[in-house]
Every structure is written in C-alpha cells, then in structure tokens.
Amino acid sequence: MKLILFLILAGMLFSCGKSKPSHSTVDASEIKEIVLSNNSTIYIQDWVTNVEVVPLETTDKALVGIIDGVIVTDSNIIIYDTRQTHCIFIFGRNGKHRTTINRRGRGPQEYSDLYHVAMLPDHRTLAIHGQRGKILYFSLDGRLISSAPAGFLFSAMEYIDGENVVCAAYGIGESDPGLQGYKNRTDLLYFTDDTFGIKGSTFPPRYNRKEIAITPNIRKFGERVYVHRPYSDTIYQALSNGLKALYRINMEKIDGAANLNSGITREERNLLQEKHPTFYGFFADCNNYLNLDISIPPRQTAQNYVYSKRTGKAYRVERDSDRQDYLLWQLTSFPPQTSAQDRFVTILPAYNIFGIGTFNPKTGVRKNAATQRPELAHLTENSNPVVVLYGFKEGL
Questions:
Q1: In contact, 153 and 170? CB cutoff 8 Å
Q2: HSE-up (13 A, CA, CB side) for residue 261
Q3: Reduced to 3 states, what is the DSSP secondary structure of residue 346?
Q4: pTM for the full model?
Q5: Which CATH class is domain 35-392?
Q6: pLDDT mean over 39-48
Q7: Which of 17, 142, 156, 189 could form a disulfide with 116 if both were Cys (CB 3.0 to 4.6 A apart)?
C-alpha cells in the first residue's frame, strides 16, 4: 500500500514538473497611467455616497479575530482569519451569522494552518488552501464537499474562470518537491488548470530572497483577478494565457519610489521607505474607481488615493475635520479591503467606532460614530466588526 501511495504522489509531482517551461505572456498595449499628486485633493464628506452600514452579528460561534480576507457576494459576507482563530465566518448581507468553518487539525479533511480562501466561479463553493499542500472545498452552508492535493507550494490563489487558476508562490521552488523538473521553478506566479497542473509562470524573483522575500499580491474584484508585485508600479489582470497590464502608478509628483534596484538590501529598503512613499500593493477596484493605499514616510502610514475611471484623474482623499462625521473619518484611515460592483467595502473594528470622536467635559456628552448612527447604537467595543459599503458621486 505504501508503494502504491508513493507512486501516485510521484506521478502527481512529475505532472507538475513536465509542464510547459515557458514564461507566460504579458500584454501592456492598453495600460492606463495613474498620476498621483498632492495637489488634487478631495474631502471624503463631499464625495462619498450610497453608504450602507452592516454590523456583523456577535455570537459565541462567530467571534471574528484578525481579518485577513473579505469576500462579498449578493447574498453573503465572508471573512477569514488566517492568524488568530483560523476560521472562515459566513454572514448574510444583513450581517446575520450563518455558519463558521473551523476545520483546523491534522486529519484528512482538516487544515493545520489556513493560508487563503477563494470563491469558485459558481459563487456557491469556497476553496480553502491550507498547509500540507491541500485544498478543501466547502459549500456556503459549511459542508465539506471534497479535497484535492495542490501539487506544489503557494501562498494564495484565485480562480480566473472554471478551468484556470493563478497562484502566488514563495520563490523557493528549488526546494519544493512539486516543482522539481520545472525550468522556471523559482518564479513567483504560476498559471494552472483547475487541478493545479502548471501551464506557465512569470515574475522571476527580482530581489535577493535573503534580503527581501516577497510574494505577489493576488486580488479578485467581481469576476476579474488582479496581480501586483510588491514595490512595483504596475497592476495586472490575470488571464488564462498570461497577464494584461491595466494600471501603471506614477508617483513622481509625490516623490515616490517604485521598481527598486534589484540589488537593494533590506536596510536600504527600510531607509528608502522612511523618505519616500511606496506602493506595496494594497488596492481595491470597483466599477468606476480604483483605490490605492500608498505608504507615506516616515512611519509608513496609509494614504488613500482614488482614481476615477470617468475622468482619468487620481485624487488624494482627506477628511474635513470641521465636519464631524466620524464613520466617514474612519474611511480615510481604513482603506477598502474589497469591493461589491460599484462600491468599496471597508471592515471597521467595533472598538474604532468608539475610539474617534469628541468629549465635552462640561456636559459629559461623548460623540462618536455609535451616537451618530442608530444602526451602531447597540455595539460594544467587544462586538464583531462593522462592514461599510460606499460609493463616490458621479461628478468625480
């Protein structure tokens, strides 16, 4: 029996190794340049519209820890935590808790560590990528459907369509048994079929891994999958046959740094980030706007820029301190994690709802987001997070 299992595993690994060794194509024919400037500033109170606030139900079975990923569909809000609870929490769009997937363990139908969660194109199935090279497939009511081996090591994945998947790797293919025999096994991005058989790859490592170890960012908004290499200026769309360059981020007017020297050391990078804005790859795309989270020195604080596809211009997003809408204030500090059609989606910790506001010592009245919005009145600092969906007015 052990010999049979070994032969099956060897066959699976060999199928990865004999995949096409060529780099995938990159199409840059229709790329849009986004020029960031501090002279084009908007106040969030003037332009945000269509705000929807959804407090997530707090129960003993739904205590959300760290938020590492958010998926929003027409019917569900899905949050997963890879570091604290190692759970996937599924809520209705009204915030009511539906189920929690918690299969942490070492059994054949469990994950010892949770890495990434992806929604299949059928919008009914979750693919859970866990440690030990295994993918578990669950229905949205929390039932295990099936499991499959991944074949090689990667950190994140997204389904381009029902037959194609893109995976972000660590660049350690020389020591990965699943990539032995594959010519470009140190690449950081792999295109596979739906059984994770490799079709092609790209993103050869740019930096010395001992100095700067990075993996590509893979994000999915609607039906489109986006890829970005940290510290670079280009955002791509992943297609079944390669990458299409969508946006190039021009940070010259804000003295930004991108596409760092390939020989840069960790110390040099840290010093550079203390003096120059950088783009690590936090962004969200919706129908009409792209939100960019730029790291601003010296403390690498987040600064939001929104790019309008209508006007072709980018704007620095600020808050008007004279207009004390505390929920909107939070949107300048917490960039959107994802989007839902024409709106961005931001997840706010409940304690932050109470943390920003004013207190009048003469009257003893405290004002914060919970006192301004009735739907937040029942929250406590120990409640589950609050989901905020919002759009921008058409004039932008």
A1: yes
A2: 7
A3: strand
A4: 0.90
A5: mainly beta
A6: 96
A7: 156
Kind and range of the H or E run holding 15: helix 2-17
Number of Cβ atoms within 10 Å of the Cβ of 58 = 18
131-152: b (≥16 Cβ within 10 Å) or e: eebbbbebebeeeeeebebbbb
Burial 296-335 (b: 16+ CB within 10 A, else e): beeeeeebbbbbbeeeeebbbbebeeeebbbbbbbbeebb
DSSP letter assigned to residue 328? H
3-state secondary structure of 239: strand
Q: Are 198 and 190 spatial neighbours (Cβ–Cβ below 8 Å)?
A: yes
Token pair recorded at residue 33:
């340049």
Tens of pLDDT, residues 91-127: 999 999 999 998 777 776 777 788 899 999 999 999 9
Q: What is the distance between the alpha carbons of residues 161 and 186, in angstroms, rounded to a whole number?
A: 25
73-82 in b/e form (b: 16+ CB < 10 A) is: eeebbbbbbb
Residue with tokens 């295109």: 191
Number of neighbours of residue 234 by Cβ within 10 angstroms? 19
Q: Per the structure block, which two tokens stand in for 195?
A: 């059984």
SS (H, E, C) 94-107: CCCEEEEECCECCC
Whether 14 has a pLDDT exceeding 50, the answer reads no
For the record, the structure tokens of 99 come out as: 């189920």
Domain boundaries, the chain: 35-392
DSSP 13: H
pLDDT of residue 3 exceeding 60 = no
Instruction: Quote the tokens at residue 114.
Output: 């949770």
Q: What is the pLDDT of residues 236-280, one digit of tens each?
A: 999 998 999 999 999 999 999 999 999 999 999 999 999 999 999
Q: So what's the pLDDT on residue 132?
A: 64
